[in-house]
Specification:
This protein is mainly beta. It has two helices and 23 strands.
């Protein structure tokens, strides 16, 4: 029996877009960034893995990792820097990502030292360095939905703003996946099976950060119904929206959507927030209900860099990546909920 061809998940993007650049573009503070976020509800572990070139030196990669531990055990985190060989990119000191097949399969591996912190420490200021422990991660991510490209989405009849207005990149796309692998944390190795999102961006980074007011980014893949959604909204300190993009994917088709309602970051709460998202597409109105499972906090620095922990004196506000439990018409999923805002002390 002849096998049907595998679906095209590229959304028209060239396969070359999937691979890391080996040299800078010549644009001032040009950077390239990759992120993989996933959560396994069976073991209650979430992973936020980020690799990016340093804007003032394209040859240096920074790897940033935040690992959500089960229950109220807190998190493990690290960041480090390395100048990898061209054939290793994208890779840092401990984290490496690899495109196996464009828009279909990626792998992620981490082997290094991490520092433990409690939820209360994460909310109470920049994290202090401390005792180190070993962590290892091996994952294979299989893409489940077409690529969601920010430029295409912003240019659609439902979108708004543009990538040209952003201070963190000029091109950006994301994709939903399922993931299998293993994690070794606190001396214990166990299988990891979950869902998540990856992204890839390029462009100037770190210029014009005074125009960063806040953002909300949320995505989830629903394995039972094989549906997914995502949204990304960015705004200036005055509240002017500079990027307004969203999508739903149903029956293997990506539909651009408009944002009707999206939750802003208003306080520091590590778990248990009740959030609502509403999107409008050609298919109708879609409502998504979220209960946050873990929220972590980092603080962008001036002119570049990121410190773990919530610092209200940070020049550009507080950045909060995390994991949530999502409901869509009774269907259940786990996915990313990431927000930032210029909060004032007392928002704990």
């Amino acid at each position: 029996m002849q096998q049907s061809p595998s679906p095209d998940l590229s959304s028209g993007l060239e396969a070359s877009r999937e691979y890391a650049l080996t040299g800078a573009s010549g644009v001032e503070r040009f950077a390239e960034n990759f992120m993989i976020v996933t959560y396994d509800p069976k073991i209650d572990v979430g992973l936020w893995l980020h690799l990016g070139t340093w804007p003032d030196d394209f040859g240096i990669f920074e790897d940033q990792v935040i690992i959500s531990l089960p229950g109220d055990e807190g998190q493990l985190s690290m960041y480090a820097y390395r100048r990898p060989a061209a054939e290793e990119r994208p890779a840092g000191a401990n984290l490496r990502l690899r495109c196996v097949e464009p828009f279909k399969t990626w792998t992620a591996s981490f082997d290094g030292l991490v520092t433990h912190s409690s939820d209360q420490e994460m909310r109470s200021g920049r994290l202090r360095d401390g005792a180190k422990e070993l962590a290892r991660i091996e994952l294979t991510a299989t893409m489940q939905a077409p690529v969601w490209d920010a430029h295409q989405s912003a240019s659609s009849r439902y979108g708004g703003g543009s990538m040209e207005e952003q201070v963190w990149a000029s091109s950006h796309y994301q994709q939903l996946y399922t993931v299998e692998g293993t994690v070794t944390l606190r001396g214990k190795t166990q299988p990891f099976s979950g869902t998540g999102m990856r992204d890839h961006s390029r462009g100037r980074r770190g210029h014009g950060m005074d125009q960063w007011g806040g953002h909300v980014l949320a995505t989830a893949w629903f394995p039972h119904s094989r549906r997914g959604f995502g949204l990304q909204r960015m705004w200036t300190p005055e509240g002017r929206v500079t990027l307004d993009t969203a999508f739903v994917t149903v029956d293997g088709q990506l539909h651009h959507a408009g944002i009707v309602e999206a939750p802003k970051l208003e306080r520091l709460q590590n778990r248990g927030e009740q959030l609502t998202i509403k999107l409008q597409s050609d298919l109708g109105v879609h409502e998504f209900l979220c209960t946050t499972i873990r929220t972590h906090y980092t603080t962008p620095q001036k002119p570049l860099g990121m410190a773990f922990g919530a610092d209200f004196d940070g020049p550009y506000g507080i950045y909060a990546p995390g994991h949530g439990h999502w409901l869509w018409d009774g269907d259940s999923a786990y996915g990313l909920i990431e927000r930032s805002a210029r909060l004032k002390p007392g928002s704990e």
